[in-house]
Amino acid sequence: MKHFFTILFALICIHLLDAQNIVFEEKKHDFGVVNEDSLSYTFRFENQGELPIAIELLDVPCGSCRGCVKVKHTKGYLKKGEKGEIEVKYVAYPHNGLSFQKNIVVGFSAEKLEATPKENILPLPEVLHIQGSISNIPTATTASEPLHLNPCI
Q1: What stretches in the chain show pLDDT beneath 50?
Q2: Domain ranges, residue 37
Q3: Is residue 47 one of the residues assigned to a domain?
Q4: What is the spatial distance between Cα 109 and Cα 50, in angstroms, rounded to a whole number?
């Protein structure tokens, strides 16, 4: 009887994890060495689970010496088989030889359905990662050109 409950518990856990299966094409992106002060990359994902999901939380790093990250993402609930995107834009401060690494934490919520006991179970957060090096960002040379200020200088 003890084995029956163990197997039953395992099957329920597997079913619940399958119901919230969010698959990213890629979770890391390396820009390499660039000489631009603004870079962007789009992470794509698919809801392969049974429940509709939506992006609920994006923890985005900003205000550091190494630049700022801004994001745009697919809005609303995605049903099974539907795809979404998270566009990540990195804005660097003028600083030659700057290397950066940023993590973006993505939280999801599952749509509450009346006929399912899984309505209070949230998908686990995902962590996306971007990195690269800035070799030469042009800086303002005249008073008429805008100057991006690095808060760490």
Answers
A1: 2-19, 119, 141-153
A2: 2-134
A3: yes
A4: 13
